[in-house]
Design brief:
It contains six helices and eleven strands. With about 240 residues, it is of the alpha/beta class. Strand 9 and strand 10 form a beta hairpin. The longest helix is centred in the N-terminal third of the chain and has 17 residues.
């Protein structure tokens, strides 16, 4: 009886852990726009609509407001790092440190799924984000794509599981990606890598140089449907 009870408890704990999506609010914590890229941010720059998508997938949402350690990441299935701060965005930007990179890599190899959403040149911190991304064969290029006068809107069609039945992605001023090792492109535009992913140990990494699915743009083209398929896949 005791063995059966313990088995049931363990299974419940594992199932719950697989459904946790945590959002980094430490390396992105903009003092000038405090609800920017937060679960409860209902303005254009918030993630309240993405929160609805994830709750619809039965995910438990968490916010992390301190440095990343093995304890911080314990029980998390998907961890999102978005648009790390620059000095122009907050008075005291917190950069990703080596100890955090080690903790994240270990967590990914053990089965965690990391989502890196950067931003284009002038709107995100690149040096320390790239130190993390390099562990997985990914580099955010400190550029803006597409290079256009005015707002650089990119509408691209993808192929594969994330884009089935809803292929059009709407993006604005993206940092393109450079890949190495075993990382692979998920979406390209005229030879430029826009989205990428890497299988690392038992885990996975997804990268895009744009915050992409914040409230202002989540319902542009097929963004909501693509995001739903992406997180369905990561939460398996």
């Amino acid at each position: 009886m005791l063995k059966s009870f313990l088995t049931v408890c363990f299974c419940l704990t594992a199932a719950q852990a697989q459904s946790v999506v945590a959002l980094d609010n430490f390396h992105n914590n903009e003092s000038k726009m405090p609800d920017h890229y937060t679960w409860d941010g209902t303005r254009n720059g918030g993630f309240s609509e993405l929160a609805k998508v994830l709750k619809g997938l039965n995910a438990e949402l968490r916010t992390v407001q301190k440095r990343l350690t093995p304890a911080t990441l314990n029980g998390v299935k998907v961890f999102i790092i978005v648009d790390p701060d620059t000095p122009a965005e907050t008075a005291d930007p917190q950069y990703i440190e080596t100890s955090e990179i080690e903790a994240i890599e270990t967590w990914v190899r053990a089965g965690g799924c990391l989502v890196l959403l950067g931003n284009d040149k002038g709107n995100a911190e690149f040096e320390h984000l790239n130190q993390l991304a390099a562990r997985f064969g990914i580099q955010f290029l400190e550029e803006t794509y597409p290079k256009l006068q005015g707002k650089g809107i990119l509408i691209a069609k993808g192929e594969g599981a994330y884009f089935e039945g809803a292929p059009e992605v709407y993006l604005v001023e993206v940092a393109p990606l450079k890949l190495s090792g075993d990382s692979k492109p998920v979406l390209t535009d005229h030879g430029t890598v826009i989205m990428a992913e890497a299988a690392v140990g038992k885990g996975r990494v997804f990268a895009l140089g744009d915050p992409w699915i914040y409230n202002e743009y989540i319902d542009k083209k097929d963004n909501r449907a693509i995001a739903t398929k992406l997180f369905q896949n990561l939460l398996r």
